[in-house]
# Entry
Amino acid sequence: MDISPRAEKLHRHSIVIDCHSDILMAVADGRVKLGERTVVEGVTTRDVRGHYDLPRWREGGVTLQVCAMFIRHTEIHYALARGLDMVAGAYREIAANEGLVLAETVADIRNAKRDGKLALMLSFEGVDPLGNSLDLLPVFHKLGVRMASLTHARRNYFSGGVMSGEVDEKAGLAPVGREAIRLMNELGIVVDVRHMDARAIAQTLEISTKPVIFSHVNAIEAFPRDPDDAPHFPFTKDKGVDRFRMMQDIAVTGGVIAVIFWRHKSVDDLLDNFVYVAEAVGPQHLALGTDFYGFDMVAEGMEDVSKFPALTEGLLGRGFSAEAVRGILGGNMMRVFEETF
# Structure
């Protein structure tokens, strides 16, 4: 896609935030060096290499990359050590690359933009590294964690997940999960409801006094207008949920719906998601949450983070104002950060 001078200027002057990446898994395993352009022939659909590196982030005009700590099923018995490995990996890459900084405050993000650097923010995609100890959450906050979802799909000590199944007595937040949401508000950690079951999300929206976000989601599939049209993801078994209303409830908190880039055939297909959310809750509640990892379908023209200017061009072409586009690219998440940290 050709990028017009208007779109190029708007993109380069905007704070650009990607709300979700699993790059720390590859970093912790020593499979990538973030300062180097990664060239891999025959990249598989489950290979993060080639989606993210510092040269590509710069080409894409990215200001902040949120980096998730996700614990696989096979790692659950040493989740704390695995989580700390990923924190250590982020710290190691920041120390090795002058162009990388850790984002712990709003000022850190603004300074990264000013200085032409990329800020990395740590997040939990499931708080499994905490085990059954909420006392560890402030420790991870001191290490830099500024965003968290209580679970990645499976039921854990804190919350039910979308893979837990139907709404029953096992669904929703555990008592300690309720405490966790309150503590996240107190510490200044953004509450992310991605992968939590519908009851847990509803309970979180009742408890949180700060904006709540969906860090990466296919909005059209996840929130169909017809509640009987159970989507593949994320509420497959929970047909009784008014998912469209749930998206609106998240917006009421001042939060955002960050559109995932997974399983889109083209940039136009991806843009349909942005238009859908904007029509439902307004563009002020839109953000980017690529999840450039584990893809089985990458949009042509949006193969990695270097292609982000094409999104700006596309949003303008769909009728979004320059102000709305600045918000979608990162301004809306900056509002969430400012209200949370």
